[in-house]
Design brief:
Elements lengths: L2 E3 L6 E3 L4 E3 L14 E2 L1 H7 L4 E2 L2 E2 L19 E2 L6 E2 L2 E2 L18 E6 L5 H19 L2 E5 L2 H16 L17 E8 L7 E12 H6 L7 H5 L2 E6 L5 H4 L15 H16 L11 E5 L6 H4 L15 E2 H17 L3 H10 L3 E5 L26 H9 L5 E2 L4
Parallel strand pairs: 10-13, 10-14, 14-15, 15-17, 16-18
Antiparallel strand pairs: 1-2, 3-6, 3-9, 4-5, 7-8, 11-12, 12-13
Bound molecules: guanosine-5'-diphosphate, magnesium ion and zinc ion (ZN) (2 copies).
Length: 398
């Protein structure tokens, strides 16, 4: 019950044993600490930076009963006596968001083949998280860390202001830094209290799942709490013949079943799970780019239903959409996908979304002139967040 995962290095840490970092404000009469290059942080995360001294708890746990339940909120720097409230991960020395370790901190991986639209999806999803989910669920949403803020700024400007589609994502080691957000909201049980949780979103290219076979490399996968597997509907062989697509339309490099089997395989290898049990991590199967299907299915199809503004996740509508998606899979001759999920996962649900809402101009590598009009991009995230009680869910009728 004291175990939490560092959102930066994915190691499991004890939330009573968090480290601190000096803030560079000494007590009167002491000399100011100096910033030094932190080797541990670079080794663990690849991030090279100079920091004030990092330090851990000075007394063992059994000697300090106040820490049996949680880390103290503040500590004094052993070098300059200055007070600090900034927690660090003991394994990678990266600053942790305030409130870390008290709420939940789900790490959600977005997996999918190259060219499925993961980078575009993450850009639009995080934008909606900051500008739509926050007001809808009355949550204060803040990006955590300078590199996260930079990523958001760069990618959002590129897409929403310049209208450019992302360049090919280069991830030589197959792992990127997670995008971390603090999510602070009134507690649903104790209305006068607020609770702070941490949401981490991680881009996981499909090819990295198939090549990263060494156990330590798969370490982070075991620490992923939930998956959003993004699939390109055009990569379903049965659908390719049914719809006409413009020249230059990119198609994911691997088909949907291959991507899913990679995720399943990696999870099984990582956990050494016997084949006869089901994987219990919730997995959202999201078909991206459904704007491409509008003509084929007709704009009135259930897949294109309006989004709601209710401050809860609508369980009934979510299930209904998942059922119609399952029906379509069977129609398109992709029943094996459904069978794979049913035979490997305890909890899964289908989603259909479009990050851009319209077909881009492929030749120019630009979005459509009308701009971006995302459809249902936050559905999978909302569904997953209900599992951690970050947002409420309701069943409705009709
Ligand atoms: N029609 C349509 N195309 C999309 C959408 N999102 C992404 N794409 C296309 O997919 C391409 C690849 O997107 P990207 O995010 O770079 O894919 P990644 O390799 O999975 O990160 C983009 O250049 C777009 O052409 C969408 O919502 N609708
Ligand atoms: Mg990408
Ligand atoms: Zn100090
Ligand atoms: Zn860490």
């Amino acid at each position: 019950m004291f175990k939490v995962k560092c959102p930066h290095c994915y190691h499991t840490i004890d939330r009573r044993l968090l480290w601190f970092v000096c803030t560079g404000h000494p007590v009167a009469g002491s000399e100011k600490c100096e910033k030094r290059f932190n080797r541990l942080r670079q080794n663990q995360t690849g991030y090279r930076v100079e920091m004030y001294p990092a330090f851990g708890p000075t007394r063992p746990l059994w000697r300090s009963p106040s820490r049996w339940w949680r880390t103290p909120r503040t500590a004094r720097c052993p070098y300059c006596g200055g007070q600090t409230g900034q927690h660090l991960c003991p394994r990678c020395n990266t600053p942790l968001p305030s409130g870390f370790g008290r709420g939940s901190s789900p790490l959600i991986a977005i997996a999918g083949a190259r060219s499925t639209g993961k980078t575009v999806y993450l850009t639009v999803l995080t934008y909606r998280l900051q500008h739509a989910m926050n007001t809808r669920f009355r949550a204060d949403v803040l990006p955590v860390g300078d590199d996260v803020t930079d990523w958001l700024k760069t990618n959002q400007r590129l897409l929403f202001e310049n209208g450019d589609l992302p360049e090919f994502t280069q991830q030589p080691d197959g792992r990127s830094e997670p995008l971390i957000f603090q999510w602070r909201r009134r507690s649903s049980r104790l209305r006068r209290r607020f609770r702070t949780d941490v949401i981490s979103l991680l881009d996981t290219p499909g090819e990295s799942l198939s090549t990263r076979t060494r156990a330590d490399e798969l370490q982070y996968l075991g620490n992923v709490d939930a998956f959003i597997v993004l699939l390109d509907p055009l990569s379903l062989p049965g659908l390719q013949q049914k719809i006409k697509v413009a020249d230059g339309t990119p198609i994911a490099e691997e088909n949907a079943l291959q991507v899913l089997s990679q995720v399943t395989g990696a999870l099984r290898r990582r956990e050494g799970r016997p084949e006869e049990t089901l994987i219990d991590k919730p997995i959202a199967i999201a078909f991206a780019k459904i704007d491409l299907l509008r003509e084929h299915l007709g704009a009135d199809h259930a897949l294109f239903r309006q989004e709601t503004e209710d401050p809860w996740y609508d369980e009934t509508a979510g299930e209904a959409l998942s059922t119609s998606m399952r029906g379509l899979l069977h129609e398109w001759g992709a029943a094996e996908l459904d069978i794979h999920l049913e035979s490997n996962y305890q909890t899964y649900r289908y989603f259909a979304l479009s990050s851009l809402g319209r077909q881009p101009n492929y030749a120019a590598n630009k979005i459509a002139q009308e701009g971006v009009s995302p459809q249902r991009v936050t559905d999978p995230l909302e569904w997953l967040l209900t599992y951690y009680r970050l947002i409420p869910r309701r069943k409705t009728r009709g």
